[in-house]
Design brief:
Structural class: alpha/beta
CATH architecture of the largest domain: 3-Layer(bba) Sandwich
Radius of gyration: 23 Å
Largest sheet: 5 strands, parallel
Number of domains: 3
Number of strands: 16
């Protein structure tokens, strides 16, 4: 612990956000880079606890107190080594992870937690700038090959780990560019795509191959993939959106969030001059209160929407942590993203009854009512408030209600895979499916979750796959211990 009184001397300080009036006119990162001295002072607030509960909060098991201490001592290269030992992509998580490690920080019991996420991102940035992240090519080749299906964060983590273990790894991605949800689901104002591209370049220099525009199960039969590779890792994500089957759902102007967001990213990539689902001058209603909903809000603002509403069926969270989520749990508390700062109105405890259309078949309003939320036998109840019926005029509705699991058919059927009770691909403790040598990780096996969980899943599946191929593995497995059988 470099400064035993650091947490007493310094308060929590986040890097500033660019002014709303400025950032609404571009798609660049909302946040500015902190000064080196500011980051080192923030790292000094870490108390190096005897039991670091921040580890409990991080699925990757990041060595947070260690690299905080190194940053405070200006030993940035060593801090990068510690960070990259557990996290392949801190430049992603530092921007996109909601940081469950921070409410688990012991300092958060009576004060504001350490700015773990910001420090993590800054370590990654300075490591790239200083040239410390040169490609790590394996010292030997195993002669074994692995196909990774999907190039989101779990697929990329699995691919990088397996490549570094000496296997020949090919990543198959059905989109025209690699990156999965990072490429076509996350807006540029949260993750500028040069951040993704430099990691992909690092992976290619290490030997990972990417084949884009190829959908396994359609363009390539799954059986052909299995015969051409010694093992397969499925990392296709949970891409089946939850729908809202109410009257008027088929009206023009009602869209899934993941129909809307990728088109905006394609405009940023130069593929389109203007999105076919542009919100310019429109009244937009976003249904769903999570991160995807906030991404839709920020995107609509930048497209010049006339008005934006966000509807959430749950009641407004409390301003201070609810007793049901005590430290070190993820607290139930009112949160706001930068997109909410940019405008719009948030409406809570509101359930949508129907979409109303005009004589041209376009949505013109939603009909809704207020609800009282209660728990009955462990299940949530949403009882209508009598006389609370209302309507909200709109020209566009975006459904951001989450995802139900991986897509069925295609390679899932060709491989003979089943799904569990939650709709995810069934697997054992070793991340292996019912098909021998076929592993699954990330949202495809876990269900919709956080980017930090996706990376942890990818690293763990890579370790299990490596052990199955070679009989042992030096690759770390941050999640459940593996009991993977060895290949004979």
């Amino acid at each position: 612990m470099a400064d035993p009184r650091g947490f007493l001397k310094y308060g929590r300080q986040m890097p500033p956000r660019r002014p709303v009036s400025e950032r609404l006119h571009d798609w660049k990162d909302v946040y500015t880079r902190p000064e080196r001295q500011q980051t080192e002072i923030q790292a000094a607030r870490c108390m190096d606890c005897g039991i670091p509960f921040c580890h409990q909060g991080c699925p990757l098991g990041n060595l947070i107190p260690e690299w905080n201490d190194l940053v405070f001592r200006s030993q940035w290269m060593d801090a990068s080594d510690r960070l990259h030992a557990t996290n392949n992509f801190p430049d992603f998580t530092g921007r996109l992870c909601p940081a469950p490690c921070e409410p688990a920080c012991v300092l958060s019991i009576g004060d504001q937690p350490v700015t773990i996420k910001t420090i993590e991102q800054e370590i990654g940035e300075r490591a790239f700038e200083a040239g410390w992240l040169a490609p790590k090519r394996p010292s030997r080749q195993t002669g074994r090959s692995v196909a990774v299906v999907g190039s989101g964060p779990s697929g990329l983590a699995a691919a990088q780990q397996l490549t570094r273990a000496g296997h020949r790894v090919v990543v198959f991605e059905r989109a025209d560019r690699a990156g999965g949800l990072l490429r076509y689901g996350i807006p540029d104002f949260k993750l500028e795509k040069w951040v993704l591209d430099r990691r992909l370049a690092q992976m290619e220099a290490e030997g990972t191959q990417f084949r884009t525009g190829i959908e396994v199960g359609v363009d390539v039969d799954a059986a052909e993939l299995r015969s051409g590779f010694d093992a397969v890792v499925l990392a296709g994500g949970a891409t089946m959106p939850r729908d809202l089957s109410i009257p008027g759902r088929d009206l023009d102007g009602v869209h899934q969030a993941m129909e809307y967001l990728p088109l905006a990213n394609r405009v940023g990539a130069g593929d389109l001059d203007r999105s076919p689902l542009d919100a310019r001058s429109k009244r937009v209603v976003v249904i769903g209160g999570g991160d995807t909903g906030a991404d839709c809000i920020g995107t609509a603002h930048r497209q010049g929407a006339a008005q934006v509403y966000q509807l959430e069926i749950m009641p407004r969270p409390p301003e201070v942590a609810h007793p049901s989520t005590p430290w070190p749990l993820w607290p139930l508390i009112m949160r706001a993203s930068p997109a909410h700062e940019e405008g719009g109105e948030r409406l809570f405890a509101l359930s949508t009854d129907s979409f109303l259309g005009d004589d041209r078949g376009r949505v013109r309003a939603i009909a809704a009512h207020e609800v009282l939320v209660s728990t009955d036998g462990g299940r949530m109840r949403f009882d209508a408030v009598p006389g609370s019926e209302t309507s909200l005029e709109c020209d566009m509705v975006l459904l951001a209600l989450g995802f139900l699991g991986p897509e069925r058919g295609g390679m899932v059927d060709q491989l003979g895979l089943s799904v569990d009770g939650r709709g995810n691909i069934s697997r054992d403790r070793s991340w292996m499916t019912e098909a021998e040598g076929v592993f699954v990780c990330g949202d495809m096996g876990r269900g919709q979750s956080l980017i930090v969980w996706a990376i942890a899943e990818g690293r763990s599946a890579a370790s299990a796959c490596d052990r199955w191929l070679t009989g042992r593995s030096v690759l770390p497995s941050p999640l459940l211990p593996t009991d993977a059988p060895m290949r004979v």
